[in-house]
Amino acid sequence: MIRVFVPQLLIVTLLVIYVISGAYVYTLIDPKLADENFTDLVLFTFSTITTIGYGNISPSTEAAQLFTIGFGILGIPLALLTLANMGKYLTKSYWMILVCLGKNIPRRPTGDAKLPLKTIIILFFITFIFGAVLFHHTGRKITMDDVYFSVISFATVGFGDKFPKAGSTMRLISMIIYLTWGMILTATLFSVLSSYLRKVHYLGRRFRGARDVHVWFGGKSMKVSQLLEVVAKEFNASPRQVGRVLHDLDNLITTAIAENEAKAKLNAQLQMLQLPHETHSPFSKIKNPLLMFNNQNRSDNEEEAEV
């Protein structure tokens, strides 16, 4: 656990140093930005590498513009990597909490498990309430103005008609945490929605091309069709039998994709131990091709013996 946590902590620390250092460099190379509050400059550099770009603050000299280009080229991948890692830990933490609470999970979560859509909506609602307190524009508690600002910020649209002002160090920290959390939630929501859209895209389609899938066998990568040819040669199977197996393989994969995963409920502690190591694939339900050929050859030999 520590070996996983420490590298991520180093990445976050590096990102924080990068943002603060960028704000300091702007004060040296751009007189206009030097007049801004330093906390607002830090928020500006943060919104730059997260691609929000509110537009209320911008570089005014060629040196500052050139620095912005290099700052974004290096900072944007670092920020995206940090957000992606945080999103994965959010998902893992959710499922681990459910397991620790003894909740009955119908399906065992795998490495690519996602947050339920209902949970994401609830988290968004709580986030909007917090944002309304932090970024209030009117005397009312929650307004459409607050929700609008949060959504365009989380989605990194950043029209510029609404933008935050830091003012103090504590407010700056609160804003960065709020925006970071919102972008993580938004990315998670888009991932869940894309999975639903992908299911709609493949709705009613049969799986084709199982024979072209690459597998690792005998210390090298080869296609399933090549593997079956080797097996057929080993057991003296005919090309027709190989074709029959390939056709059955397509049907098996189609069935495996259409079916739900096993409903068996595992022990909670066992789930926690197996969570990082187990992955599920449609190929897990495919019978051993060697056994299929062996059974086929036995049947052929018995028929020849009877004749």
TrEMBL record:
The protein's matches in Pfam families, at most eight in alphabetical order, are given as: Ion_trans_2
Tree of life domain: Eukaryota
Please tell me one Gene Ontology term that the record gives under cellular component: plasma membrane
Keywords noted in UniProt: Ion channel, Ion transport, Membrane, Transmembrane, Transmembrane helix, Transport
GO biological process entries: stabilization of membrane potential
How is this protein positioned relative to the membrane? Multi-pass membrane protein
**Domain (Potassium channel): residue spans on this chain:** 14-92, 123-198
Q: Would I find Ion transport among this entry's keywords?
A: yes
Q: Which GO terms describe its molecular function?
A: outward rectifier potassium channel activity; potassium ion leak channel activity
Member of which family? Answer: Belongs to the two pore domain potassium channel (TC 1.A.1.8) family.
Protein name (record)? Potassium channel domain-containing protein
Q: Which organism is it from?
A: Steinernema carpocapsae
